[in-house]
Specification:
With about 625 residues, the chain is mainly alpha-helical. The chain has 28 helices and seven strands. Helix 25 links the parallel strand 5 and strand 6. Helix 12 runs antiparallel to helix 13, helix 14 packs antiparallel against helix 15 and helix 14 packs parallel to helix 16. The mean pLDDT is about 80.
């Protein structure tokens, strides 16, 4: 029960982000509604049994569970969001049912233990009396066994001596004496009788066909052992060794070379690590399939169960059935391929039911050929509703060129040398992607001036940050990103945090190019050309940046100017946490240096480079 409780305490990824967030809050070890129950079971805190039982009984009622879901949903739902319904709510109900069932089982076990404790004294007295009566007959039994040992029949004599030795051990245990370990040890008769099965079975309970057994009759034990090891069947492999050591292998036992004591353990550890890596890759592949709609709900649930079972077997050090882990992972891999093919067939069937133009059909089929199921499904949807099929943008992808190389290999950030390099149209010695040779003289001068202004603002003392000129110093910074601002105004004149960060609103903003998300493109134009800009000093952690951004409750698009370079971990943290905030885009030293070289002052490049590190909704939110 403890292991099951620990497994349930691990944050789970449900099908809806809000449901995932609610589950995470519920499973918090100390404060969560479910996490506190599971923590009690893991710690075996029996003094809290009554409280836990009452909470479990309350959560057994569906009305109570729905009430808790509604309360948490209201807390985490945006003002314009819809209530959590359907499969998202059902996932949370199932989570509560699993936890409550486990907690009730623990309460029953505790009650049974307490009843057993009350009867311990009476049982102990009866056992003590029985033990003493057996010890009283010790000498007589051993004398009788000794007489039987002098039989002329060799088999009977050996049996009697073995029985006497066994009785001596038994009486020694009853008397509390030390029992000397004897060589050999008992061997399961059924295991010996079925030893030949180890030549063809990867598990001890395997039942091969008659043809497979007949084909393996003449197989050498060395070959059988090597095959079991190659197939990760470590339990049968160890069993072969255990039978070979005392010479109990039938036929050709002498031809089997016993492996070194650590050989099996070393290979098992290596295979366990390899399967762990394969498990992680398949989890990521399943997530991609979920995002693309390549699996149905039932298929998704089945694959998740297989992966969860494989994970439990991998993490349990006392289990050696890696053959079942490999089978589960192979099954997931094969099923994902089949499910993708089925999803593609469904899309083709939808396409065949329509009468699209040859060009539209070719566009959908091209996406299917490249396994881009999500885009193909979207294109078919446009055809089904009679809307124009959009052209899918191709061209270069800036993200792989930018990340992780530029943030990682530009430790000095934006400095005087970089500004001079830009002005001269040079190429960075360590980062070939930062090549400013393609800029015209005018563009190079503009980029260099902007980077120089960035560097000057970054070096501003705490007292000087209060005097940042919104009309002179703020508008130039977004220009390299594709936002031409006519002016700006301060929004934090009375804020006590102005030495840490400043908040401005750029006005008269014209957007150059097409953004990858409306929040930083069409929305700015539709709302009068205003863009909020937050300047952040001191290189604070990503969590701090998000907490400062959260203070701005306007829900307006926010461009964070981060004076410093964000590392890989900080960018991942931003991507994971900023989804709950207003539309947020963070530009740092590395991004400015890259966009000066490759951005061409277009928001398409800016958003393509920076949106992967934010939680911006790519769709327009309806009010």
């Amino acid at each position: 029960m403890r292991e099951q409780s620990r497994a349930l305490l691990v944050p789970q990824r449900l099908r809806f982000a809000r449901a995932t967030e609610i589950a995470k809050r519920w499973l918090a070890p100390e404060s969560g509604m479910l996490g506190s129950l599971l923590t009690t079971v893991v710690g075996d805190k029996r003094d809290a049994t009554q409280k836990v039982r009452e909470q479990a009984e309350r959560l057994s009622k569906l009305a109570e569970v729905n009430s808790e879901i509604d309360r948490m949903d209201r807390k985490h739902r945006s003002s314009s969001g819809k209530p959590l319904q359907g499969s998202g709510r059902q996932d949370l109900v199932h989570l509560v049912e699993r936890v409550v069932g486990l907690v009730k089982e623990w309460c029953l076990a505790v009650d049974g233990t307490r009843r057993g404790d009350r009867s311990d004294n009476r049982v102990a007295k009866e056992i003590s009396s029985l033990r003493q009566s057996l010890l009283d007959g010790r000498d007589a039994v051993l004398v009788d066994m000794e007489h039987l040992a002098h039989s002329s029949d060799a088999v009977s004599d050996a049996s009697a001596r073995a029985a006497r030795a066994s009785m001596e051990d038994l009486f020694a245990l009853l008397a509390g004496e030390t029992v000397v370990a004897r060589s050999g040890g008992p061997v399961d008769p059924e295991l010996m009788l079925n030893a030949e099965l180890l030549k063809v079975c990867d598990t001890l309970d395997g039942r091969p066909s008659l043809d497979a057994l007949l084909a393996a009759v003449d197989r050498r034990w060395q070959d059988a052992f090597d095959e079991r090891m190659a197939r990760d069947a470590f339990v049968p492999a160890r069993t072969i060794v255990e039978l070979a050591e005392p010479g109990l292998l039938p036929h050709e036992a002498g031809e089997f070379v016993l492996p070194k004591a650590t050989a099996i353990d070393s290979l098992e550890a290596k295979r366990r690590a390899e399967l762990g890596g394969a498990h992680g890759e398949l989890v990521a592949e399943l997530h991609r399939a979920q995002a693309e709609g390549a699996v149905t709900d039932d298929q998704d649930l089945g694959l998740q169960e297989l992966l969860a079972d494989a994970h439990r077997r991998l993490e349990c050090p006392g289990r050696h059935d890696l053959v079942n882990v490999r089978r589960a992972l192979d099954s997931v891999r094969d099923d994902l391929t089949d499910f993708r093919r089925q999803a593609a067939d469904r899309i083709r069937a939808r396409l065949d039911a329509l009468d699209p133009s040859a060009e539209a059909r070719a566009q959908v089929l091209r996406r299917l050929e490249t396994n881009d199921l999500a885009t193909a499904a979207d294109l078919v949807y446009f055809l089904e509703i009679g809307a124009p099929v959009p052209e899918i943008e191709g061209g270069e992808s800036h993200l792989p060129d930018f990340f992780p190389a530029v943030p990682q290999d530009l430790p000095g950030g934006i400095n005087h040398d970089l500004g001079e390099l830009v002005r001269a149209g040079g190429k960075h010695p360590m980062l070939p992607v930062l090549d400013y040779g393609g800029l015209s003289t005018e563009e190079a001068a503009l980029a260099a001036d902007t980077l120089e202004e960035w560097r000057a603002l970054a070096a501003a003392d705490r007292k000087d940050r209060l005097q940042v000129a919104p009309t002179r110093q703020v508008p130039p910074l977004p220009k390299l990103l594709g936002y031409d601002a006519k002016s700006a105004r301060s929004l934090d004149d009375r804020s006590q945090h102005r030495r840490q960060y400043r908040l401005f609103e750029a006005t008269g903003v014209e957007v150059n190019g097409i953004a990858k998300a409306p929040a930083f493109g069409s929305r700015i134009s539709e709302e009068g050309g205003n863009l909020r800009v937050m300047m952040v000093w001191g290189r604070p952690p990503a969590k701090v940046v998000m907490s400062w951004a959260e203070r701005d409750t306007s829900d307006a698009s926010l461009l964070v100017v981060y004076f410093g370079t964000l590392n890989r971990e900080a960018r991942v943290e931003l991507a994971a946490g900023s989804g709950r905030l207003q539309p947020l885009l963070v530009v740092d030293d590395a991004a400015m240096a890259y966009l000066a070289a490759r951005g061409n002052r277009q928001v398409s490049t800016t958003t393509q480079t920076l949106l992967p590190f934010s939680g911006v909704n790519p769709y327009i939110r309806e009010k």
